[in-house]
Amino acid sequence: MAELNIVEKVIALEAVDLFKNLSGEQLARIASIAHQVHIAPGRTILEPKREVDSLYVILDGEVSLVRGTDVIHTAKQGEVLGSWALFDPEPMAVEARAETDVLLLKIARGDFYDLLSDNMQITAAIFTTLVRRFRQLAGS
Q1: Is 1 inside any structural domain?
Q2: What is the mean pLDDT of the segment spanning 129-139?
Q3: Of these four, 25, 65, 67, 110, which has the most CB atoms within 10 Å of its CB?
Q4: 73-100 pLDDT, tens per residue?
Q5: Which domain covers residue 115, as residue numbers?
Q6: CA 1 to chain centre
Q7: pTM for the whole thing?
Q8: H/E element, 45
Q9: How many helices (H) and strands (E) does the chain have?
Q10: How many domains does one find in the chain?
Q11: Which helix (H) or strand (E) is 40 found in, with range?
């Protein structure tokens, strides 16, 4: 499959709740650091005891989220794996495993930090989203 262009990546990134307050131009900047990744069926994407260093947007395919021996969710197109990985390197409590051929858009934490260091408006918009999430959790 050919590499997605910037517009296609922006459309995929619009599904990410963390980025919902960003403009199209800001999403395009993030899209410029996002890389397309193909994962074969049965391969592990995220492991419970490994540090998470990237956020993944599912472009196509199905990913099982497994805790122990139980499948707790099957993630599909438009869903995100490791959304907190951009800010917290702690391992996830679940395994993410490709059930079918999976096409992902990957944003590495290091690339994301480099982008944020030069784009204060993106940083501010993301922190606004994070603060709103915390307020919702706190019942404010």
Answers
A1: no
A2: 82
A3: 65
A4: 999 998 889 877 778 878 888 999 999 9
A5: 6-138
A6: 21
A7: 0.85
A8: strand 44-46
A9: 4, 8
A10: 1
A11: none
